[in-house]
Amino acid sequence: MILFTSNLEGIVPILVIIIAAVSVLTLGLLIGVFILQNIVSGYFSSKKFAVKSKHKVEPLTGEEKFELMVFNNNVNEARILSFGFLYRSNSVDFFDTFIEKEKLPKDTKVIITSREFIKLEIEAKHLQAIIAKHNDGKVRVDPVFAYVTDIAGNIIKYPAREVRKIVYRHFKAIDDERRAVQKAEKKEATRIKRETAKAAREKAWSDFTDKLARKPKAEIKPEPKPEQSAQKQEEKQSE
């Protein structure tokens, strides 16, 4: 009995260590599976949709537009909750715009069938105005993304490089025009300043010459001739 108790006391710590090790390994395995599941889910979710955007110009009116297309690459149909553009973590959602343009009920569930896509044309000036509000007056445009949100809430985004390029070109043109106006205003102000200074100098000179012209001149008496002075001396002596 004493021998059994002593053996049990030596086994208990070993059992505790084994149980703790198994618990840690199990927890690590569960965490690994969870992370792997999220990675795989995100990978296939990102491959489910493709979002493309491009710049268009209407040939008759010259109006600039952005075309946004959402492709369903999945073998099954897929429902989307929103789509549009992302700029500086701000979403510009055109889902309601799409519903309105397609003349669908407001509570419509937009479902894209397998290997098909939906398309929406947006006025370029509309998106440019929205980005300008978040750009704090800067010409530089940060990366712009086209995105779509699926039914699970996953956001799939793709770089909208062409859109970014066009928006930057628009901002640059406005900034160049502003600089040109400022340069012209500065040049005109300098011209007016010079003409004002010149007019002031001319007026000062004119006043000075007029003042000299009005000042009476001193009479200069002619010096007596030697013959006249000698005659006057003789007259005085005779007297």
Can you give a write-up of this model?
The chain has a domain at 47-175: Immunoglobulin-like, CATH 2.60.40. The chain is 55% helix and 22% strand. It is built from 5 helices and 8 strands; from the N terminus they run αββββαββαββαα. The chain has helices spanning 2-48, 95-101, 124-134, 161-214, 226-238; strands spanning 49-57, 64-72, 78-87, 90-93, 111-112, 117-123, 144-150, 155-159. The relative contact order is 0.10. Mean pLDDT is 83; it is low at 42-46.
Task: List the keywords.
239 residues, alpha+beta, Immunoglobulin-like, five-stranded antiparallel sheet, three-stranded antiparallel sheet, 8 strands
Brief account:
The protein is 55% helix and 22% strand. By secondary structure, the chain is an alpha+beta fold.
Largest sheet: 5 strands, antiparallel
Instruction: Please name the CATH architecture of the domain at 47-175.
Output: Sandwich
Number of helices: 5
Cα gyration radius (Å): 47 Å
Which range does the strand content fall in?
Answer: 15-25%
Tell how many strands the DSSP assignment holds: 8
The first-level CATH class of the domain at 47-175 is given as Mainly Beta
